[in-house]
Amino acid sequence: MGLFAEIRHQGALCASVLTSSVELWRGCLVEHVARQPALPLTLYEYEACPYCRLVREALSALHLDVQIRPCPRNGQRFRPEALRIGGKRQFPLLVDPNTQTCLYESRDIVHYLFRTYGSGQVPPRYRPNLAQPLQSALAFATRLGSGGFASPSRAPERALALWSFEASPYSRLVRERLCELELPYTLHNLAKEHWKELGPARRRVAPNPYVPQAGGKRHAFWQAHGRVQLPYLEDPNTGAALFESRAILEYLDRTYAT
Q1: Span 106-129, pLDDT tens digits
Q2: Distance (Å, rounded) from C-alpha 20 to C-alpha 251?
Q3: How far is CA 127 from the centre of its chain?
Q4: Which of 46, 188, 198, 226 is the most exposed place for a label (fewest CB within 10 A)?
Q5: How many domains does the chain have?
Q6: What is the CATH number of the domain that holds 126?
């Protein structure tokens, strides 16, 4: 990566940190460890949409995995499919085959997720409030519309897989590009499970060495990879497996952008 590209990447990362700060880092810590449903949830959404962000925050807080079908503005790959399923050109759209549920409206979806897969009550941080519209508008402004409009791309035969959590500034950059390229992927939410895990992967509140809580999703990831660092992307179409947002972005553009 050249000097200009490196400066641009670091600038985008700083803006992404600001976005998470404006959103008060919702979608960073797990509120309730949900049992993964038998059939995967599917979310039709786009990264720049403030209402879609509220749903992704709730999914992170519940540790729920979800099939993402990116629907950026002027996108043609999944928007027609979403219209056929739900009947409206509106996002987010959640489809849960486990309960035969098809839902619009972020408030309704968040309530449904916590009622169905959480403790039954929406935690205070995730309830609608008067500050949310302003926070969402400011968060959108910090990213200047990134993840909002489709870019030409080749469609993969199989969906990619991304390990991420909503408030991760590094992961957001990857999710934005996946959205712009209209690449379907399984989002494995891997939010922090304890306050001691707060901070970057190599510099946490509690001193290293870091070992996740036994039995959790982070512990399973740590056992498989020897570290918990996000984002992490796997592409079954090429066999690629990558850490580091910068490397993943380069890979996505090299492999799928046209």
Answers
A1: 999 999 999 999 989 999 999 987
A2: 25
A3: 19
A4: 226
A5: 1
A6: 3.40.30.10
